[in-house]
Amino acid sequence: MSRIVVPGEILAEKPLRMPNALTEGSRTFSTVLGIYDEAKGALTALEGLWYPRRGDIVIGIVEEARLNSYNVELNSPFKGIIIAKFVETRLQRGDVIEAEVKELDETRTAVLMRPKKLFGGKVLDVKPSKIPRIIGRSNTMLQQIRDGTKSSVMVGMNGRVWIKGGNIALATETILKISEEAHTSGLTERVKAMLEKSRGPEERIPEEG
Amino acid sequence: MGGGANKPELIVNGKRLDGRGFDELRPIKIVAGGLKNAAGSAYLEWGNNKVLAAVYGPKEALPKHTQDPEKAVIKCRYAMAPFSSLEEHNRSGPNRRAIEISKVTKEVFENVIMLEDFPGSEIDIYIEVLQSDGGTRAAGITCASVALAMSGIPMTDLPYAVSVGKANGHLILDLNKSEDNFSDADMPIAIGPRTGDILLLQMDGDLSKEEVGRGLTMAKKAGEIVSKLQMDALRAPYEKILERYKV
Hints:
The complex is a heterodimer of chains A (about 210) and B (about 250). Chain A is of the alpha+beta class and about 210 residues long.
């Protein structure tokens, strides 16, 4: 049985260790608005922020190109940085990049690696707490969007989605629907139906991108 | 507090001017969300009070000298719209009263937000009073609390606030404007319901030690109702969607 919990609401009368929750004495309480599954003992944030973790794929916007590093805006209170010597082509202010978090330095700045410049396309900001659902279990949902819209879609854990080519309008609509209904079950089937319904015979051939 | 010769009778036949009992709240309505650009927002109607709250951040604190390398800083702005009141507040902007309320509101939330998670950042809380009828600081805190929860900023509690006052020798709960202006005392209280901590306690006028104690008990009892409304408001948008796909 799962229930929606609010900040400060008691989850269990025993100390449990889980993200977005704190223990006080012998009790565990939530610090966010989320869904708590009592059987599994798992708290999923409905509204939450992104904390950089090693290995996270992010989509950022280059804010400043400096002599030996780039500052990257990550849609979060935490800043990103790329060491310039690991970048093959020079980046410019305003470039959209996809990169992986290599490590967090002592000021909690995310040091990024393997930046890949994303040309053109559209950047969509969604809530970071909805990103796991947009990706789906072992990428199923994301693959479904890519197949259904013939768009290139990149998802960053920091709450950014980059879309290019294919049916951008449909891809955007699908992603917004997933982010709104992330806490419901049977979403994969509904998205599948939605994508199939809008697939017309006149579907245009996607451009390469 | 005010009064003098023109002081109206606030308690008539054991009832208050608007027909409420001594420990009765005005009707409250809370809507979570609503503002698209804000990280979190809420709208609240508390009797004739209408309050809108928006939360932005956490983001890099600017200007840079306001940053704290160990924790986030809160910047709170309480403002009454120029059209919000019948008299007095004919000009909006940071006057003495608004600066004071911004400060005490900020201090309420400094106790519940997990600021250490975001060193060097700022969290902006905006509270706009669209229509006022007494007790707007309590309404503002209650509303901002819902807006903060909607923004996903981790909090250890969901504070609410109510006011208690005294008129004609009776302790009264949740004062409206005329009671606020002409009563003998007014005491706004903010409480964190999980711990029961008192996060704000101000007092205008005179109350005895015993009356303060009774007032706190009244506020806590009424707070259970306010707290429940806050929780329901937070759950409502999600439950609405769950309801749509119920099998």
